[in-house]
Amino acid sequence: MTRRDIGTDDCRVKVRPGRGSRPRTKIRPDYSKLPRGRVFRIDRGRYGVRISQSAAQVTAVKARELRHGSVAIGDICALNGDLSGRKDTLARIVSVDPRKTVLRRTAEEGESAGSERVIVANADLLAIVSAAARPTPRYGMIDRCLVAAYDAGMTPVLILTKTDLADPQPILDRYRDLGLRIVCSAPEREETENANKTECGGTAESVPVSAGSLREIKSLLRGHISVLVGHSGVGKSTLINALVPGAARATSAVNSVTGRGRHTSTSAVAFELPGGGTVIDTPGVRTFGLAHVDAAGLLRGFPDLAELAASCPRGCGHRPEDPGCAFDTVSEPAALGRIRSFRRLLCAAVRTQWG
Ligand SMILES: Nc1nc2c(ncn2[C@@H]2O[C@H](COP(=O)(O)OP(=O)(O)OP(=O)(O)O)[C@@H](O)[C@H]2O)c(=O)[nH]1
Ligand SMILES: [Mg+2]
Ligand SMILES: [Zn+2]
């Protein structure tokens, strides 16, 4: 029986042609010769795109055939339409080039809970920003961001801000085994006094980052496509303002009682770094859902353990309770440290709440 055969010859029964009877073509237009640009801003259906050849910035809309949510910050796309970048002109994104990396998180709140969100495409470096205090550092959050980076094939780095307010040593100790680059950041001493005033007073003013930390962060990010992620109020936009002259990202003092941020940035924006490279500021997240990540995804961040994992039973989850896991045969201290870190992150990935 064909799809439109409803099983009767009765001529009184009318059969409407199905949608499938519309002629379809598999021939796709060739967009390979069209100019390319990188998406640096998405705002209510309008895409800010920086043209790769000219560095001109245009506003674009998405072609109708591209699915909702199919274009993310960092995507390289083919463009037609008006590419002059003049006021009130619109370009059109007609296709998105294959992505090198995709940083995702699973939404854990609201109506979209459980759905996957692409935060950024094509980034190679994930800069996890945590404050030493105000807001209180959350290891669970850092761990989960690390897992997301490894799963996405990105290199994670840790930027510890507000080291003028608390000693970052416990955080440094905890992440030593992972071989991460960690940079501590704080304002110059005289700025700190002003910072404390604004934090209590509640006026929105950005605190400059000390010249030493700024130099270190610049060299870390140079030539990379980096994303800053972290809780609200840790100082992501403050860093962007220090790194990119004229970025003018809004910042605001954390709540003076709870020490929590005020979700000042509401959308991700990519900026070109003066020394080369791109840095992306993102809105503070409460949680970093990882429902899409499994042990195999995390193992990408631990290539030194991959050979050992290959001798595990099929489908091994590499957790201490998994029978026959080859990780349990290791006694060498350095490898044991790595396995401990791997398992801790695995545990952070499967936990539904961050701590
Ligand atoms: N004392 C001190 N304050 C800082 C430092 N870095 C940032 N701040 C302050 O922390 C507050 C929050 O900074 P933002 O840059 O707005 O934080 P954010 O991470 O962008 O926050 P969201 O946009 O809400 O995600 C501001 O008042 C900054 O001035 C620092 O190193 N030391
Ligand atoms: Mg911000
Ligand atoms: Zn195993």
Brief characterization of the structure:
The chain has three domains: 36-96, OB fold (Dihydrolipoamide Acetyltransferase, E2P) (Beta Barrel), CATH 2.40.50; 126-147 and 155-281, Rossmann fold (3-Layer(aba) Sandwich), CATH 3.40.50; 296-350, no CATH class.
Order of helices and strands: EEEEEEEEHEHEHHEHEEHHH
Overall pLDDT metric: 87
CATH class of the largest domain, anyone? Alpha Beta
Shape: globular
CATH topology of the largest domain: Rossmann fold
Per DSSP, the total helix count is: 8
CATH structural architecture of the largest domain: 3-Layer(aba) Sandwich
Can you describe what's shown?
A hairpin with a 5-residue loop joins strand 2 and strand 3. This protein is globular. Helix 1 crosses helix 8. It has 355 residues and is of the alpha/beta class. 23% of the residues lie in helices and 21% in strands. A six-stranded mixed beta sheet has the order 10-9-8-11-13-12. Strands 1-2-3-5-4 form a five-stranded mixed beta barrel. The protein folds into three domains: 61 residues, Beta Barrel (OB fold (Dihydrolipoamide Acetyltransferase, E2P)); 149 residues, Rossmann fold (3-Layer(aba) Sandwich), CATH 3.40.50; 55 residues, no CATH class. The protein has eight helices and 13 strands. The protein binds guanosine-5'-triphosphate, magnesium ion and zinc ion. Zinc ion binds next to loops.
Could you give the topology of this structure?
Layout: E1 36-43, E2 46-51, E3 57-62, E4 76-81, E5 91-96, E6 102-106, E7 116-121, E8 125-131, H1 139-152, E9 155-161, H2 169-174, E10 181-184, H3 189-201, H4 211-221, E11 225-229, H5 236-243, E12 269-272, E13 278-281, H6 295-299, H7 303-309, H8 333-350
Parallel strand pairs: 3-5, 8-9, 8-11, 9-10, 11-13
Antiparallel strand pairs: 1-2, 1-4, 2-3, 4-5, 6-7, 12-13
Zinc ion (ZN) is lined by residues 309, 312, 316, 318, 322, 325-327.
